[in-house]
Amino acid sequence: MIHPDSGRITVARYLDADKHDRVVLNVQADLVNGGSNHTQVVILIEDHNDNTPRFPIDLVEITISENQSVHDPFYIVHATDKDKRKNGAISYSIISSHPPCPVMVQPLTGQLQLTDSLDFEENKDYRIRIKAQDHGIPPRSTNMTLVLHVSDFNDNAPIFETKRYEAEVPENSPLMTLVLKVKARDEDSRENGRISYRITNGSSAFGIDEKTGVIYVNENIDREVRSVYDITVTAQDQGKPPLSSSIPVRIHISDVNDNAPSCTSVATMVVPADSAPTTTVGTIVITDPDNGPNGTVIYRTIVITDPDNGSNGTVIYRSQQSHQLFVVKSNEISNHFTVMADGKLFISSLPQSPPPWALSLILSDKEGRQKHLSIRILEPSSAIPTEPVRLSPLLPIGSKVASLGSKTKKNRTSFYSLKNESSFFELDQATGDIYLIRKIRDMQDRRISLYYNQIDATTSELEGKQIDFEIGNGSVEAPYFAEDFMRVTVPEDAIIGTVIATLNATGSGPLAS
């Protein structure tokens, strides 16, 4: 307003430079005698920093990919200030970030850009505080919160838990038999981290569950056809584009005793009538395609007698020739022992230390393969001798007179070998059965002892044992039945224990009873 007398202009109400930064007054001066004049007064209103910058929204959430390029703007923050000139000019800055985020804001434009790459697997979310401040004196400012979500990008390939897998499965396993399970992990999330498995190189004999990674038998497998399978398993994620990695898998086929020994060299053998005893008349070669113990062929003694039931018969049996070389492994005890060419172990001098003595034998075949056998030599037992096996002088050739096989140790396999050869007895090394190969009445001694070794095939333990035979005195005339043929009729409702017939035999001499 203006004073009419003094012409002083004063402020009549609140001025706001944010609305009008100037006021134009038209002033008229009047004289008493009626004269007047006009003028204009322009009043500039100086701005005062009375407004604080403001963001449209105090909380903003945005999502960017973890493969966002560094230094490229991905968002712009913007605030307004009603003040004029420098009081309304705004600068932006980042106050805090939790967790620390590799991001910066351009002070004048408010553009946000990365200073380093993001990693979804390391941090998935950031909470960033941004300040907008004007240039007034004193300056005014305000803050906003930007929540930055990082979206996953398929930048990680599946990784297997190990560098290679090996497994073993028996041959003839049923279809769908589980062999092993492979497992891979992917640091990505959702589809980018979802893994499927497949066999990319190998044999159709095996399949794989694409979700679980379980490898199973897909076809009939035979170790004799193929003993080892090498396949390649690939793990692939579902990202776009997908990433994958592969790993070798070796599957060994273990043997099952599914093949019988076969003989491909059977031929007619001609034996001259004047052949001496123990003459080798031929060789039988047996093969078994199975592996290990399942394919180990044991030749048992074959006893052949003449039609007269062995009264004047002879025996043809396998030659005991060996292609093995026995060597005693050197130690301070072994110097006192010697292995002969036929495999017999002799003591050449007594060791200073008392028994038991431990020896290690190295067995080598003509192919150069070796096996170690531990022998423990014990002091002679002072136990009471076992009762001898009594034999009748009437036993025919080919009769089984004893069995060394143990019936008390189940699930154990033993082999036997004689330490003193006898022209009257033959030992089946596999079963431990002892057969008569000459007529006992030709034996001069009425008592004979056989010394043998029992070898445990599982532990390779060797134990020396003895069996004694005693020949009885009696008539050489065999007993005979009163009737060569007897027919008996039994009712079907006969109870158990009913006597249905009585057999009578007669003979002479002390053994007739």
TrEMBL record:
Q: Which PROSITE patterns match?
A: CADHERIN_1, CADHERIN_2
> Can you supply a Gene Ontology BP term from the record?
homophilic cell adhesion via plasma membrane adhesion molecules
Principal subcellular localisation of the protein: membrane
Query: GO molecular function terms here?
Result: calcium ion binding
| SUPFAM superfamilies xrefs | Cadherin-like
Q: Which residues form the signal peptide?
A: none
| Cellular localization per UniProt | Membrane
Coiled coil ranges? none
Q: Would you tell me the Gene Ontology cellular component terms? A: plasma membrane
Q: Which keywords belong to this entry?
A: Calcium, EGF-like domain, Membrane, Repeat, Signal, Transmembrane, Transmembrane helix
The residues covered by the Cadherin domain are 2-55, 56-160, 161-263
Taxonomically, the superkingdom here is Eukaryota
Q: Which PANTHER family match?
A: CADHERIN-RELATED FAMILY MEMBER 2, FAT ATYPICAL CADHERIN-RELATED
Name the record gives this protein: Cadherin domain-containing protein
